[in-house]
Amino acid sequence: MGLSLRDPSLLKDQCFIGGTWIGVPEVDVTDPASGEKIAAVPNFAARETRQAIETADRALPEWRSRTAAQRSAILRRWFEAIVDATEDLALILSSEQGKPIAEARSEITYAASFIEWFAEEGKRTYGEVIPSPRADARIVVIQQPIGVTAAITPWNFPAAMITRKAGPALAAGCTMVLKPAMQTPLTALALAALAQRSGIPDGVFNVVTGRARDIGGELTSNPTVRKISFTGSTEVGRLLLQQGAATVKKMSMELGGNAPFIVFDDADIDAAVEGAMLSKYRNSGQTCVCVNRIYVQRSVLDEFVAKLAKAAAGLRVGRGTDAGVTQGPLIDAAAVSKVEEHVADALAKGAKLALGGKRHTLGGTFFEPTVLVDCSADMLVAHEETFGPVASIFAFDEEEEALRLANASEFGLAGYFYSRDIGRVWRVAEALECGMVGINTGLISNEVSPFGGIKQSGIGREGASHGISEYLEVKYLCMAGV
Ligand code: ADP
């Protein structure tokens, strides 16, 4: 445990159930930059998950019956505790996940923003009064917390994917059992420690680490759990949807993407390069809204490629906690193999390298920032999320062609385009088949906007006022005899 934290008690090696830290640390958590062990966490399975669900169920009546303002005050303290612990949380996050420390700090700020936002939104879960078709009746609609909820989160945003679910759930009056990714459980446990200190009552927020299949099996089959919120791969999302069908659970799914990024000939090319850099290489290309396919209109292709390759060559690859590093390692060996496979497939089918293309000389799971040109629709990079630092560039001639190519995907999470023509901006924004569109920007995520996908990228929205609806049930009261 070599992390030098200001508050070493934030580094937890036990699970958090019912306000108690339990379990034997068994599974190592390693630093992807070095392979070194940071700590270990329990390898819990179905039995402990059931215990966590029962605890969350017992805590529910009291938490639900508090006023929204009371819950809000406690969540506000959690928000402030996260902000105050930014440096320690960022260090834990960067060490277990690999992203540069500056990106880790930004993620903590982003993560905290969901707690603050939903602490406020919890006070605004308004109902309705609907004009009645009957003279003797009045129609009233109220919103109530759905009950015990479960969250299953990925490793690419070890803090934000948790607060984006726990914030609205707790603000709405629900309790939660969280299963974080086993690559990055330490950030989740540190957040739980801060939740406890902030006065979140025992049992309201619980964290279980261990065997994904067993924990997921219990969370999806236990009838007490009324809602599952998942962020991860489409493959696991489909499985959870199937498993949850037996008990008809409400489900939110944030799944894979395959984001197109279109650069039209009227774009500000320097701005487009800047947006592509942010959206492609952030987190080493390991975000679900990362650009996967870059479509550039032929007349501006050479300029765009030259400028992007130059900018990407300026990235500094290294250990995320080292000063000046702007691109960390990939999460594990499997991630590197997938990136290698995508590059090899593209080269075999006629693509060319404008930059990079192989494992970095640093070894381990480091990969060179890469730019591929002359990509085509038959390549893996066109169909699958590469989830690595590879910018795949495709040429196009007409607006209709760009839209057809961009929409030729089973996914529909984020899309981006650069244009200064107002008519084109509206046409393309409306025609892109995705849940979120970045227009002249590569950065779209924040707590006030509804994040989510269409097609096989997901169900439901997180953030904005929509985010809390996912944790509320609508109840209609028909009040007759007036
Ligand atoms: P990734 O490819 O990003 O790791 P996954 O979908 O595999 O995405 O992982 C996202 C989350 O889903 C992680 O917390 C992981 O442990 C969990 N997970 C993976 N398989 C299952 C499963 N069978 N049941 C429940 N959760 C699972």
List key phrases describing it.
482 residues, alpha/beta, Aldehyde Dehydrogenase, Chain A, domain 1, Aldehyde Dehydrogenase, Chain A, domain 2, seven-stranded mixed beta sheet, six-stranded mixed beta sheet, 39% helix, binds adenosine-5'-diphosphate, succinate-semialdehyde dehydrogenase (NAD+) activity, Succ_semiAld_DH, Ald_DH/histidinol_DH
Description of the molecule:
Pfam families: Aldedh (PF00171). Keywords: Oxidoreductase. Belongs to the aldehyde dehydrogenase family. The structure is a single chain. This protein is an alpha/beta fold. The chain folds into two domains: 8-255 and 457-478, Aldehyde Dehydrogenase, Chain A, domain 1, CATH 3.40.605.10; 259-439, Aldehyde Dehydrogenase, Chain A, domain 2 (3-Layer(aba) Sandwich). The protein is built from 15 helices and 22 strands. The chain has a seven-stranded mixed beta sheet, sandwiched between helices. Strands 9-8-7-10-11-21 form a six-stranded mixed beta sheet, sandwiched between helices. A three-stranded antiparallel beta sheet has the order 5-6-22, with no helix packed on it. The radius of gyration is 23 Å and the shape is globular. The model has no long low-confidence stretch (mean pLDDT 98). The structure holds adenosine-5'-diphosphate. The site of adenosine-5'-diphosphate (ADP) has 13 residues, from α7 and α8.
